[in-house]
Description:
With about 140 residues, the protein is mainly alpha-helical. It is built from 5 helices and no strands. It folds into 2 domains: about 35 residues; about 90 residues, no CATH class.
Amino acid sequence: MFLFRVSRVLRELQQRADSARAVRVLALALLCGAHAAQAMSLRQLQALEKQDKQSANYVRYYLVGLMEGLVDAEKEHSTTGARARICQADKRMEPAMAVALFEAERKRNRDMYEADMPVALVMRYALQNAYPCSE
């Protein structure tokens, strides 16, 4: 009976050690991944636009995904009770509008945006200007 209990305790300790090791490995992977997965800058987006024939499609897909991600993040943000920054209301928002919204914001505030600024920031401001919230 005593040996059974000891073996059970040893198994539990081994499982805890394995899960603790897994947590450490996951944390390390997230730290490394967070450093490697940075937001695309305006300079990088411009370089991508000039690469080849498919580049325009890649840029469009990136901006559409970015727009949809920002809208979803804003919905999640507002469910926590925070003040909404993007209010779609009855205005339509379609994926085809992503590039036009982005380019209009870049032209509107041409002097404000530097080449190393994240594309996501410009898109967020574009969405805030196109879909403002009433105070």
